[in-house]
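Suppose a colleague, Dr. K., hands you the sequence of a protein chain of 328 amino acids and asks what its three-dimensional shape might be. Before reaching for any lab equipment, you can write down a predicted structure in C-alpha cell form. Begin with the sequence itself:
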Amino acid sequence: MIQFRIQPDSEIPASTQLFNQIRFAIASRQYPPGYKLPSTRALAMQTGLHRNTISKVYRQLEEDGFVESLAGSGIYVRAQGHEGGSRLRSPILAEHPEAYKVVRTALDDLLSQGCSLNQAREIFLAEVDWRLRCSARVLVAVPSQDIGAGELMVDELEQALRIPVQLVATEELGIVLEQTTSATVVTSRYFIAEVELIAAPKSVRVIPLDIHDYAKELNMVKSLSKDSCIGIVSLSSGILRATEVILHGIRGDELLVMTAQPKDTYKLHAIVKRAQIIFCTDQPSHNAVQAAVQMLADDLIRPPKLARCDNYIGEKSINLLKRELGLG
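The predicted structure, expressed as C-alpha cells, is then:
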C-alpha cells in the first residue's frame, strides 16, 4: 500500500499535497485503472487529515476525470484513452456485463437529449432511491366488499417477497397515502382503475397483478361428465362471482356450480354433501372444507374430491414485482 505523507509546515495546502500524490500514483500506474482507492477513514488514519479534507480531494480527482465514484462501492481509478474501452471496470460491472451495456445505452440516450453527466447521474440516483423507498412499504388495495381477494394477495406476496405487506381497503387508501411519503401499491387488474384514480394525484406507484390462469383447474372442469356438481370455496367473494360466470361460459347449464366462503358453514356443508369435486382457492378454504368433510363423514356416501388451487397471483406478475422492488 502506498504511503502518503503530508508536510504540516509546508506552504502548499495539505489538500493540494494529497491531491498531487494521488495523481502521481495514478499517472505512474502505482494505482492502475480499476484500482479502488483507500476509504476516507483509512487515508485519514494514514495522513492525519480530516475525512472531510480527503473527501474534497476525491471530489476534485473525480471532477478532473482521474477517478469515478460508484455509489455504495467506492472510488475507482478511471481507465483513460483506449485502456479497457475507456470505461471503469469494477467487480460489480464485470459480474453483470449485459446490465452494464444497458446502463451505457441509457446514459448515451440521456446525453443525446442534452443532459450533462451530472444531470444523468442525478436522474439515475433519484430513480434508484425512489424505488428503494417504495419497496420499503408495499400496500395491497382491494375494495372492502372483496377483502378476501386482498388476503389472498397478501399471503402469497409475503411468501414470495419475504417482506411485510399491508392490506388496505380501497375506500381507505387515500387516507393511508396521506400518512406516508413513499409506497408501492399493488392490486388485481380487476380493481386497477379505482386504485389508480386514488394513487395518481399523490404520485404513488401502482402495479397491477395478473391472476393465475387456472389452466389445470379449467381442464378438470372440461372433463367432468354432464350434470356433475362443482363446489367452489374461496376467501374472495369476487372470485366466487367470477368463477360462476366463467364456468357457465365453458359448460353452460351442463354443470351445477355451488359456491361458499369458508366461514359460511351452512353453504359449506351443502357443497360437501352435493358436489363431486370441490375447488379451494386458498389454504383457509381448503382447511374449512376438510373439516366439514370430516364432520359430515357419516352422512356421505362418497366424499367429494378436493382440489387445492396452486396460487391466485400469476407467476410472471410475482417476478415482475420482485424486479420493480429490487428484490430479484
